[in-house]
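We give this protein:

***
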Amino acid sequence: MAILLLAAALSVAFAAAPGGTKTGTVYKCSDAAGSVIYQDFPCATGTELRNFATDPPSLSVIPGPPLPSTPPTQRAASRPARVAASSGSRTTTGGVSLASERRFIQVGMSQAEVIQRIGKPDVDAKNQRGKGQRWSYLPKDGDPKTITTVTLVNGQVANVERKIVQ
């Protein structure tokens, strides 16, 4: 971190210097004590750590999720009603219904894990004592005739109830 601050300070100093730098090249060297220094002239023999002109920094790219095969405007037209889109009936990219994952919710899971696994609840209510939430997931394809109620306390699953309805 200190090296980055030093590099930034030197960059500002070089840019603010009258006449600017002559070469525009930055060299990374080591001094007699072994510390890293940045300078605008070539390093002494055997002290060069990096020449940014010949060895530029690498760029790291983290890949994102795959792009959908259909344009977003076409997908928006084929979406179901708002209630179904915001409920646990969404599907993952593999086509597996998130509703079918409801039976795997366990005590101790975090609120984020529940949302990631089965989506946002159909009904979100405060607990009677005001110390938590009760999330209810209504019957959907993949979990028909079952109401799943998840009780959360301090962001953790405290109880899971699954009731069969007719």
Observations:
- Residues 2-51 form one domain.
- Strands lie at 27-30, 36-39, 48-51, 123-126, 133-137, 146-153, 156-164.
- The CA atoms of residues 101 and 118 lie 6 Å apart.
